[in-house]
Specification:
This protein is mainly alpha-helical. It has one domain: de novo design (two linked rop proteins) (Up-down Bundle), CATH 1.20.1440. It has four helices and no strands.
Amino acid sequence: MTFSVTTMLRLAVAGSAALLAAGLLGGCASPATGLQREAATQLQARVLEITQAASQDDPASALKALDGLESDLSAATTKGQVSPERSRSITTVASAVRADLNDAVAARQAAAKAAEDARIAAQQAAQNASPTADAPAAQPAPVQGSAGGGAKNSGGDKGKGKN
């Protein structure tokens, strides 16, 4: 399937945003950064999933991975592995990535609908250009001098009633 330049740019932006999230998560994992090493490792793995799916032009999978990131972030925040401030920072980036991915999904659906509409229009145009099976077939005109169904013999009386 071919995508517009706008769609490709949106996917690139989503990938860039995911990389930015990786940068935010990749800081020194210590209590001073508001992110413990275990949580950082887990969240970085989720960010990698998002980035890979976006780079493979699969925004639906990237959104699913983003859901996992947000779930893991919530759990890590609840356990005290991520500070509330760092959690808000990551959530802000995740929201921007989600918006880009949702735009990409919408663009993909619009492109698919446009392609389907074009296919249907072409199919209807082809049907309108050719005779349909429901229309009666044109009957060929009888050929002069045929011997069928009571047609006169053009040779006069030859062979009729003469012995």
